[in-house]
Amino acid sequence: MNGPLVLGIETSCDETGVGLVRGRTLLFDAIASSVEEHARFGGVVPEVASRAHLEAMVPTIERACREAGVRLADVDAVSVTAGPGLAGALLVGVASAKALALALGVPLYGVNHLAAHVAVDVVEHGPLPEPTLGLLVSGGHSNLLLVPDVTDDIRSLGATVDDAAGEAFDKVARVLGLPFPGGPHIDRVAREGDQVAIDFPRGLTSGRDLQRHRFDYSFSGLKTAVARWVQAREATGQPVPVADVAASFQEAVVDVLTRKAVLACAEHGVDDLLIGGGVAANSRLRALAQERCDAAGIRLRVPRPGLCTDNGAMVAALGAQMVMKGRPESRLDLPADSSQPVEQVRA
Ligand code: KG4
Ligand code: ZN
């Protein structure tokens, strides 16, 4: 095995991730999640997340090294998510990464979280075609990205204008009385339901909306439509067909996500689509994306679910690619930037 040994730290939301990657080989990906501490609030509480990162950081770094069979002294570079994400949560990772880089005397790479979601697929499916089209869908983001070079050049084609796709899953799950985070529960329940039972709206897909927001998404209207439908049903005293609502809602989301991703590939002449982020774990999204990519002659790449949700391996993978491409390291006064634009791949 060769290539630089990079330790990557991710703390943008509620997972403390520490990954070790050598070149394009994943050695170990250690995760400590605070999701259970947020469950009773129905969403991530930033202060709770920051505190959990602080407590988990050192044990998670130690576990990653132990499981990977490497010593910290062997690490060639440290990379860290500099943004976007929750400010306090990011700060814990950035401060830890600076301390490590300084103590070890190795370069520090502050990287963009969204770029890392794209870059992680190299550990599973090899080098990224240039360009690749990235569809990133999670609790915090829904973006269509044109990626000529994941270490240097990412262009935003579109993004959600309101709720992120995962956020819509979580809110609809709540309406249906399913636990947080709701995505996996909707995915499971929807398997028993009929996806054409209810015709929910597909935001920004027709007429002027499609012209003005060609590659943007909107899920807020859909979420409201589901809530109204459920309320109307309850008002009649009839039981809510949870599986049918879940399946019909899920179909509306994945239909729009895949339709616009395939359209973007066609209009930008890109043959490779990569889907990442927590919602990429959705079984119906994966199936429909495969079907539509096959029909359009597009190659589809989706990392395994554990690499789609937030993790340290993705940050290490991007850091290793930065080292191998000779990109400049970050300064030790690197800030955490909660609203770092996706075009800014390195901080
Ligand atoms: O990438 P991620 O772990 O964290 C960020 O938000 O950055 O994504 C979490 C989101 C949550 O909204 C969760 O409900 C959603 O991903 N999710 C899913 C599935 N698994 C996780 N959504 C739909 N279907 C799934 N199977
Ligand atoms: Zn993420």
TrEMBL record:
This is tRNA N6-adenosine threonylcarbamoyltransferase. The keyword Iron applies. Its cofactor is Fe(2+). HAMAP family: TsaD. It comes from Serinicoccus chungangensis. Transmembrane segments: none annotated. Keywords: Acyltransferase, Cytoplasm, Iron, Metal-binding, Transferase, tRNA processing. Binds 1 Fe(2+) ion per subunit.
